[in-house]
Amino acid sequence: MSDGAPVADDDEQRHRAELVLRMRQSGINDARVVRAMEMVPRRLFVPPHLADQAYADRALPVACGQTISQPYVVAYMTQHLQVGDRHKVLEIGTGTGYQTAILAGLARRVYSVDRYRTLVAAAEGRLASLRISNVTLLTADGYLGWPSQAPFDRILVTAAAEDVPPALCDQLADGGILIAPVGPIREQKLIRLRKTATGFERDALLPVRFVPLVPGKAVAL
Ligand code: SAH
To answer: Would you tell me how many other CB atoms lie within 10 Å of the CB of residue 22?
Structure first.
């Protein structure tokens, strides 16, 4: 974000400071991640009638029947992704663009895909209003990744499939890390894959609840 980003009012600054304090108390101790979260006004990413809940630590409903993820889960995934400032990152499930904005504060460039044109257009507007310019968005089926931009140093999936889509494994760089929620609703877990010279190392992280990764691009929306 550039120095010319809109200046937040005092309440807004205080809400954000309280949010990151809660994140730190919950074990989010990577200073770069904390700073990146502090820079992003979540209020801009939630529907106006839910503005008073923008800094509560919970997921909220947004357009197209989707959700903006719970701040703790955003922080946790971001911390475990270990994003460096030279990294090229792929996100599947742009949604509101909140997680995208945080990744943009950490990475060299972020590519983000959503199946809803409406969500991509709204996210593009929010990111532009925050003068975030190292992000490229695409309306497409995230199951396929973004082959023309691969490989990616980091991949983050923010909707749950039965397992990690094979195209995403293929598009991960050697030494790269991918984090995705997998499994049936009510039994989802975040998993982390690390691509090594000989294959993938896989660890299970946190139990979570994400909206499903639905195959195909959404038609009218
Ligand atoms: N990271 C978002 C929350 C994402 S909710 C945020 O911070 O706001 C999950 C998103 O995944 C939804 O926007 C949904 O449209 C998208 N999604 C579901 N299936 C998809 C697919 N096959 N390809 C791309 N996006 C998909």
So the answer is: 15
**Is 5 within a domain?**
no
**Which residue CA neighbors atom 4 of ligand 1 most closely?**
95
Identify the CATH number of the domain in which residue 142 sits.
Answer: 3.40.50.150
- pTM assigned to the model: 0.94
Q: Check if the beta carbon of residue 54 is closer than 8 Å to that of residue 42.
A: yes
Catalytic residue among 2, 69, 112, 129: 69
Nearest atom in ligand 1 to the alpha carbon of residue 91 is: 1
2 is annotated as an active-site residue? no
Q: Is residue 1 part of a domain?
A: no
pLDDT in tens, 135-144: 999 999 999 9
Instruction: Please give the residue range of the domain that contains residue 123.
Output: 10-207
pLDDT of 2 reads: 43
Cβ 96 vs Cβ 90: under 8 Å: no
Q: Tell me which of 87-96, 115-124, 178-187 is least confident.
A: 178-187
The verdict on residue 148 lying in a domain is yes
- Ligand 1 in reach of 156 Cβ (< 6 A): no
Domain total in the chain: 1
Determine, yes or no, domain membership for 188. Answer: yes
